[in-house]
Amino acid sequence: MTLMLGIESSCDETAAAVVDGDRCVRSSIVASQHDLHEVYAGVVPEVASRAHLECISPVIRQACRDAGVALQDIDAIAVGNAPGLIGSLLVGTSAAKALAWSLGVPLIGVHHVLAHLHAAALDAPPLPLPAVGLVASGGHTHVYRLDDDGTANALTWTIDDAIGEAFDKAGTMLRAGYPGGPAVEALAATGDGTGIDLPIGRPKAGGFSFSGLKTALLYALRGQPRRVDGTTVFPRELDDVPSEVRANHAAAFQSAAVAGLERGLRAALNDAGEFGALIAGGGVIANTAVRSMLERVASDAQVPLRLPTRAYCVDNAAMIAGAGLAQFERGHHADLHLQALARLTLGVSS
Amino acid sequence: MTADVHLDTAEATEDAGVALAARLADGAVVTVDGPLGAGKTTFARGVGMGLGLDPVHIASPSFTIVVEHRLENGRVFRHIDAWRLGGSEDLEPLGWHEWIGAPGTITLIEWSSRIADALPQDAQRLLLDYAEGSGRVLVDASGEMP
Fold it and tell me: By the 8 A CB rule, do B26 and B75 touch?
């Protein structure tokens, strides 16, 4: 049985995992830097790069130990080499190259965003292709068509903010905490958004838009601004918004964000041609309201819905190994010239 | 301070970016500051459009901090979001000193106040803010202390 070592370091998680050819996850280790970044309400590239450097070797060792394998048992190494923070990507990519060279095994470069869709195949049956996949995370809101020859093509994407970024920024405005996704979801559960109208962006050329929603939330919380002596003055400060008002606005924000995601996804499905399944992945897919929406959409399209477990929604290396296996099985390898790339536009082959 | 330019709609903000792009010299550095939702990324999209880019590929750079767009004339348009940076010491791993203000580049920086001490003296400093009622105001604050 093939054993794939996956390595992930694109943002603020340092992760390694061992996944076998049946997509059974033998181990999955994620060292998160959330505590480090909480003070900044975001990811700090220099802090992230240094933390990856400190974590990468212990995390790989732990992944092998938990899987009960030695490095010499590994058949190939997959690494998320794009897209992400360049300094962070370099740490994982360099480690993967060094290991692949020293062990004499194939190296596979994996597109981090596409890998989120392979998370749905972990500890689960193979993905039925062709399929349509939605990736919704802090950095991405993309819909892809995945074909059975391994190619992936972007159907639509956000024209401004990613939905997870909108949750993060709403979390800041609502004083909900970081990371914004789970914090806003928890706050929303205690509120009632009825009667709070937050408009959803409707891009003329199609695609998703979450930037206008951010502005609508700001106006709703702070009131209508006035210009006084060359500066803008709002009737209220965010810190002065009462907690129940915040909770109700969190609920309204979440409803509007999920509705925006649903509308863009349904439009993309109309243009997708024939497909056999709806797949989703990314941190935002851990959100319960998002999962319910996806169930409705898949049911209306009369296709099965394939979602990762919540543990594999957030950044992890098991999904990198899973995506790496799909390439390995097609004989697609990289060589030691593999580069870390901050940005990589699809279609690429998976 | 120069007069406020009133921008009624997001399209007007975009158009202001397009207009600015036509006036940018090689190596120009532009900063765009203002509160969440003021239209910084919309303005940046306009600048990118004015430089010949397809607007659908100019989204928020918050996730990767720096997004490099290749222009048809061989130049590079760098769109930066410093929102998540702790300070100018975080710029080194992004290669900042290798390309900021260099020939063949145009750089636009959102949330530049976070890295104020690293900005070139001749950067064009723009402020976007909410206008009274609706819309936005654009202020050119170049020449003033940041």
Answer: yes
A145 and A263 part of one domain = yes
CA of B57: which chain A residue's CA is closest?
A159
Tens digits of per-residue pLDDT, A178-228? 788 999 999 999 999 999 999 887 777 788 999 889 989 999 999 988 888
Mutate to test the interface with B, among A159, A209, A214 (most CBs of B within 10 A): A159
Please indicate, yes or no, whether residues A272 and A254 belong to a single structural domain of this protein: yes
* Joined tokens for residue B2: 């120069």
**B63 vs A42: CB contact, 8 Å cut-off?**
no
* Nearest Cα to Cα of residue A56 among A86, A98, A3, A26: A98
Cα within 13 Å of Cα(A212), Cβ side: 18
What is the spatial distance between Cα A339 and Cα A19, in angstroms, rounded to a whole number? 23
**Mode of pairing for the β-strands spanning B105-110 and B76-81:** parallel
Is residue A4 within 8 A of residue A19, CB to CB? The reply is yes
Q: Is A262 found in the same domain as A170?
A: yes
A262: Cβ–Cβ under 8 A, 6 or more apart, which residues? Answer: A293, A296, A297
The DSSP call for residue A151 is: B
- Are residues A281 and A170 part of one domain? yes
Q: Is the pLDDT of residue A157 over 60?
A: yes
CA atoms of A50 and A217, how far apart (whole Å): 36
Interface touch B85/A342, C-beta < 8 Å: no
CB-defined contacts A:B, below 8 A: 113
Question: How large is the ipTM?
Answer: 0.77
CATH number of the domain at A252, please: 3.30.420.40
A53 lies in the same domain as A180? no
CATH number of the domain residue B121 falls in:
3.40.50.300
